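Issue: copy button drops trailing tokens. Both records pasted manually instead:
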Amino acid sequence: MISFPGYEEYRLFIKENYRPLHSNLYQFSDAFLCPELVHALRSPSASALAELCQVPHPQIYTFPMLRQEICEALIEEVEAFQHWCDENDLDKLRPNSMNNYGVILDTFGFDNCLQTLMGEVVSPFARLWFADVGGDSLDQHHGFTVEYGPYKDLELGFHVDASDVTLNVCLGRDFYGGELYFRGIRCELCQQTMARPEEEFEISQVMGRAILHRGKHRHGAKPVTEGERHNLILWCNSSRFGQSFNSAVCPSWCGGQLLGRI
């Protein structure tokens, strides 16, 4: 999903010269996942995935995802890559327009791994709850990490993601604060409308636990008051949904309709 002049040359240089610290991370496997998630994904029961999830607020789903050792190894891999970039005087691309710290995982070999993760983990859940925004046909991703803490970003401003469905997994480390807050689902026409009281919600982040939500669910992150927080973010999109979506019409899933903005 990233494209600019020289990008492929940038990736090729990294591929030919960077030596991974944890090579096992670059090919997705069930060994990444918590046992209860693997069981639900492989279960013949149609209700297994829904039963695994908690729904702390409408349209927000959480479930155990990554093993602790995978979270720790991924942080170490990112730090090793950043150190290698510094040694080689190589620019580190910003994860997105709002985060200044973290890396785009696809730039150094994680593209196939994350595409498989999207297909095997995100898509089964997205088909259940987000089919109306392409959750049943996800085929593109943008994967990155973000970092919060002293001398880094402390918080994340109010925004929507450039995605149809977003997966957010806390990797650790020890930290206080950093709660995610949500303020209602909005289309482009209604993004500046106020949030209704029942749309306002906050959730703490727990190592290895995933939060899955619509990309257009407005959200942000409160300041980290102590320690560091690292997250794996996967923005998932459906090209089929994108081609059919009419941005000039307020869709049925937009909460702005209840405010009379139609």
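Record 2 (pasted manually too):
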Amino acid sequence: MGKQIVILGSGVAGTIVANQIARKIPGELRSGATTLTLLGNTETHTYQPGWLYLPFDLVRPEEIKRSQKSILDPLVHFFVDPIEKIDLPGKKLTSSSKKEYPYDVLVIATGSVPRPDLIPGLQEGGHWFYTEEGALKLRDALRAFQGGKIVVAMGVPHKCPVAPLEVTLMLDDYLRNRGIRDQSEIFYTYPVGALHTIPAVAKWAGPVFEERKILSETFFNMKEVDVDKKVLHSLEGSAVSYDLLISIPPHRGAKVILDNGLGEGGWIPTNKQTLQMEGHDNVFVVGDTTNLPISKAGSTAHFSADILVENVLSVIEGAKPSRIYDGKVFCFIETGRNQATYISFNYSNPPSPPPPTSSVHWMKLSYNRLYWLTARGIL
């Protein structure tokens, strides 16, 4: 039997890894010297950053979804078969259907999920855009909104570090376009003593908020939502009333990671340079699933996947990892008014966002269309 590479998780990280490996060793895969298997929970691949645009009627759900098989290299064996058990000593995975998937090298790319249930009352009283269902529900709420107080609140950790600012500024733009901004108040809260955890981003956001008359409160960590009174309480003891509550729920790793005890919160201890799971030379971790001290974002998955693929191929050939990941991240920031900026940073160099421009906004919208080339491992 040939060597077996198994990728657990068919989101952006797992899909990029699968496609890049397929392109790099097509001869081995065709001959059977190596097999490449991708395991997922759904037949559909979704461009998750597109969910941010759904509430504002800027995209349709079908525009950000494709068949998973349609974006995979034909040499990748893809199965929709949710995994329940990860047996690291035995080097095999077992699915809910009791099928076993042995491996020589395992790549874990199970991502992260929003957990509004961790904040009492948030599921019933809040809205979010981190799932298609949540984004569409928020879209309907915004369509019906005729004025009042909108509170934006954060849970931690969460993926996409700039999403709280993006949704707030896009909301300001949306209300102005509808002609109801003067009848509306936007109240932004953040868990630390600044408008963002990245100092340069927080410094940039302050004057923007002042210009657009967006109110804020820092050191505000969500504790619970009083659904009947429409009041959000913080761990710090403050309370804020709302007519509409938009939240960035706290995120956790996938259930299969939690159930198998592979990492606190569902985040797997990962070597920050080689992307190997700590203590396991033949197991790699990519994307949101890691516990790395960097943003959980699509670009993180993309840049780390490029490095991980080379290291996986080194290990499958019996060598040591040959590439080092430097923590590279790049994020666009939608700022409304048909403008955007961006941040680029790594483990050593902090970001510094330039002034927003319309050209960066159109670059972002262009990338939304080009994403499928990224997932295919081309771009």
